[in-house]
Amino acid sequence: MEKAEKSKSGFRSFPKNFWTVIVMEFFERGSYYGVMSVLSVYLVMSTGEGGLGFSKESVGVIKSTITPLLYLLPILAGALADRFGYRRTLMMAFAVMSLGYFFTSQATSYSLVFLSLILMAIGAGFFKPVISGTIARVTDESNSGLGFGIFYWSINLGAFIFPLILVPYLKGIGWSYIFIMAAVGTGSMLLLNLFVYKEPPRPQSSKPLSEVLKGILMVLNDYRFVLMIVIYSGFWILYFQMFDTVLWYLKDYMDMTPVNNFVNSVVHVFNPEANWKFDAEHVTVINAGAIIALQLLVSSIVKKTPALPTMITGIALGTLGMGILAISTYAWVFVAGLIIFSIGEMTAHPKFISYIGLIAPPDKKALYLGYSFLYGVIGSGIGGILGATLYVKFVDEMGRPGMLWFIFSMIGVATIIGLLLYNHYLKPKSGQENR
Questions:
Q1: 1 vs 17: CA distance, rounded Å
Q2: Centroid of chain to Cα 204
Q3: Chain segment 383-402, per-residue pLDDT in tens
């Protein structure tokens, strides 16, 4: 980064490469969440309605495969990107992602859809570490906090705008156009990579792949770290239901007329002909919108609170949000449950990252934080198959959706109990957990 850039402050302190990867992140995450906001509905919907007619159990297998890949691949992808260059890695990632989305738009058989989505996940898995790595390399201590704050906002902004605006419009034309949109959204970033993105300065030495694998084994030998990851994964089993069982429940059971009437009463002030309807994609919109609106407020409230008790509070809120779904099928109760869950997520997750930094050995904090996302591998790997199996059993076969949400709420309660026991028996001896 040039000295002239370092002398500036605020938004002006970031070089062009920073804003280039922020644009890339916005379009990649917008494309991803645009697809994920409706994918599970599209895959199980009957062919007569424009879907593919797959069974829920088979969709659970897809989701329990592709989502863990997104969390697992960055471990290896980061090391490969350091060795072969960020620009080359981005070229491969965008090309593979775009092809994966396009092939999904054309495929109708289960095996081809599965393979196409795996292709998408491989591209996305290689994309993730390059963006955060670029931001780390073009920022310093004076602006990295703001830089990563903008980065996280761009993720949620993409997850908010694409499902809110593009998905409903494209769905009206044909479901395949949602995937074509994602293919164009990621494929067009190849041009940005070719003509605008510049290879950031490389570190003096990059880790060989063998050292990365040794790091994995070393971290996994720390039983305290592994146990924390396993316990915390329980909450993420709940989170990943937002892209599967919650969407099916909305389509099968919910009458969103009260929400539709309220939104249309507001929209009609600007467009009397509008006929807005709450649909599957708006579950993602509520989650991302709540984070955009409330994350700064929530972070300011809990910034000085102890990490582990705050995590437990957040998970309790998330569990409450999911439990509310069992109480009533009234539209506003459903929306309230989603919002409360989102507040729980934004309360718990930043403190989880903080807590991992506290329990990690002082000389290995970066290494531990790098592997802390294994919660997503476990949570999504279990969540997809478990959610689909329970939905078929308790909702499709028994007609008891309340039991489904009760079981997931109990997983949340078990997570809370696990963290309380962890805090009692395995908390850091230095007392740093109270910082």
A1: 10
A2: 32
A3: 999 999 999 999 999 999 99
Cα–Cα distance, 435 to 59 (Å, whole number): 43
pLDDT number for residue 42? 97
Q: How far apart are CA 370 and CA 79, in angstroms?
A: 12
Residue entry with tokens 């309807």: 277
How far from the centroid of its chain's Cα atoms is residue 342's Cα?
12
Give kind and range of the element (H or E) at residue 14: none
What does 134-163 look like in DSSP terms, one character per residue?
HHHHH--TTTHHHHHHHHHHHHHHHHHHII
Q: How far apart are CA 212 and CA 16, in angstroms?
A: 31
Task: Please state, in angstroms and rounded to a whole number, the distance separating the CA atoms of residues 200 and 133.
Answer: 9
Which residues does 123 contact at the CB level (< 8 Å), separation at least 6?
92, 93, 94, 95, 96, 97, 98, 99, 100, 186
DSSP, residue by residue, 198-237: -PPPPPSS---HHHHHHHHHHHHT-HHHHHHHHHHHHHHH
258 is written with which tokens? 């009260």
Rounded CA-CA distance 35/40 in Å is 9
Please report, as a single letter, which amino acid is at residue 270: F
Report residue 369's pLDDT band, with 50, 70 and 90 as the boundaries: confident
* Gap between the Cα atoms of 240 and 324, Å rounded: 17
Judge contact between 284 and 156, C-beta under 8 A.
no
Sketch out the chain's domains with CATH numbers: 11-201 (1.20.1250.20), 208-428 (1.20.1250.20)
CA-CA-CA-CA dihedral for 348, 350, 356, 358, to nearest 10: -100
Whole-angstrom distance, CA of residue 386 vs CA of residue 112 = 23
The full DSSP string for 247-298 is: HHHHHHH---HHHHHHHHHHHTTT-TT------THHHHHHHHHHHHHHHHHH
C-alpha–C-alpha distance, residues 63 and 247, integer Å: 14
DSSP state for residue 427 in the 8-state scheme: S
All residues at 6 or more sequence positions from 235 whose CB lies less than 8 Å from its CB, including other chains: 315, 318, 348, 379, 412, 415
DSSP code of 431?
Answer: S
Q: What are the pLDDT digits (tens) for 399-413? A: 999 999 999 999 999
User: What count of other Cβ atoms lies within 10 Å of the Cβ of residue 203?
Assistant: 10
Q: How far apart are CA 362 and CA 160, in angstroms?
A: 37
CA pair distance 323, 401, nearest whole angstrom: 11
C-alpha distance from residue 263 to each of 50, 250, 256, 286, 411 (Å): 27, 18, 11, 13, 34
- The total of other beta-carbon atoms located within 10 Å of residue 406's CB is 15
**214-221 long-range CB contacts below 8 Å, 24 or more apart?**
215/367, 215/370, 215/371, 216/75, 216/371, 218/367, 219/364, 219/367, 219/368, 219/371
Question: Is residue 331 within 8 Å of 258, Cβ to Cβ?
Answer: yes
